[in-house]
Amino acid sequence: MESTYDLSALDYHTARALLEWQVELGATEALLDAPFNRYEAPKEAPKAKKSAAQPAQPMPVQPVPEVDTAAEAEAVAQRAQSLDELEAALAAFEHCDLKRGARNLVFADGNPAARVMIIGEAPGRDEDREGKPFVGRAGQLLDRMLAAIDLDRAAPVSEDAVYITNVLPWRPPQNRDPKPEEIAMLRPFLARHVELAAPDVIILMGNIACDAVLGRRGITRLRGNWQEAFGKPVLPMLHPADLLRKPAAKREAWADLLSLKAKLGTLS
Ligand code: URA
Predict the structure, then answer these.
(1) CA dist list (Å): 71 to 66, 74, 136, 181, 200
(2) What is the pLDDT of residues 73-102, one digit of tens each?
(3) Cβ(134) to ligand 1 under 6 A?
(4) Looking at the whole model, is its pTM more than 0.90?
């Protein structure tokens, strides 16, 4: 019977689940899609005996050229002339292994014309599923925080809107912290993202965003203090996921939101 499955059409997660299921059933070897009759197969020519006088020569190992992935990311990102082109460039970027384990590229959400750009850490499970940043519990809290100062990611008017992205566009496995080399590799895309969106101010949500943009961690000391990065005023804030764990810290977050509102007033 002919197989009706087109295995090449399966997505990564389904293919992996099928493979795990077969291993659970006891499969130990990868065979062919179609049956193969070994009785009808042409006989292999007998292997020549190795002569003691001619020891087998090892194949020369070809050196694999080292790719400077950050330099390549920089070149690719700089070529993008619009946010759509940048998203397409990221989608085609093959040097980050996170891409292979993720369901979706999580590029951005909100209004790209917004005065405020928020940079988070990386997609979690919900964001990976939906392909949008900050849609899980932390994202819902973020939306409520923004609403408290009359900002809304869906607002059509740039004064009332926010634009949201992350340091990493692909979910790290088991939500582990991004590795320094992943941050370094993808930073050129983030820098170009800021350049193309051209917000008036940037909010850095949590330590990873501070690390990627300011090169420093220590959010409890950094938060609430305006700095400059990418040629813009930048405000580090506690990550909404931290606020879910430590609700008492919402007082500081409220102070930072008021500081953001005041800053927008001074810049308009
Ligand atoms: N946390 C983040 O930093 N980003 C998201 O998109 C979701 C949770």
Answers:
(1) 12, 5, 33, 13, 27
(2) 999 999 999 999 999 999 999 999 999 999
(3) yes
(4) no
Superfamily grouping for domain 69-267: Uracil-DNA glycosylase-like domain (3.40.470.10)
C-alpha of residue 134 to centroid of ligand 1, in Å: 5
Q: What are the structural domain ranges in the chain?
A: 7-37, 69-267
Enumerate helices (H) and strands (E) in the chain, giving the number of each: 11, 6
Given the structure tokens 């998203």, which residue do they identify?
87
In angstroms, the first-to-last Cα distance of the chain is 71
The Cα 21–Cα 41 span in angstroms is: 31
Q: Are 236 and 222 in contact (CB under 8 A)?
A: yes
209's tokens: 């965003």
Helix (H, G, I), strand (E, B) or coil at 116: strand
Alpha carbon of 194 to ligand 1 centroid (Å): 17
Count Cβ atoms below 10 Å from residue 232 Cβ, excluding itself: 16
